[in-house]
Fold this protein.
Amino acid sequence: MIDKKQLLTTFLPIAVLQAETTDAAEAVPQQQLFDGMVCIRRLPFRIGRESRVKKVNGRIERIERPKLDDREPNNDLYLVDRGHLLNISREHLLIEVDGESFYLVDRGSACGTKVNGEPVGGEDQGGRSILKDGDIITIGTMESPYRFRFLDLRGFMIATSDH
């Protein structure tokens, strides 16, 4: 028999990242973007720069990422950094849960990450910050256009019966 509660926990996101800028939305692979949002279904959720790109008509475009045999990818979300100066590191940050709280962990990125304008990591140092519903995550420098709003959906799960 199919466990419908388990299906819900598999398919429903526990959190989302809502693109706050056009550049942020354009950096996300289209198959992972739904109405300007990226679903987070499992943790930790790793984010980094897509390094497999090429120039097409003056624009940086993603090259299809080949399957990695049986190896896990380094990131759950690969963002294309189209800036002249790179803001996003290949292994930039992750979102994890510890107890009841979400945390943003900078994975030793060069430009760091900001949570509501407060620096986390940078200069290859790494760092960790609590992450709350509605927080704005800036990936890279303060001038970076890659801004996302973090939305915690755990309290809004659909109530189900045992029938």
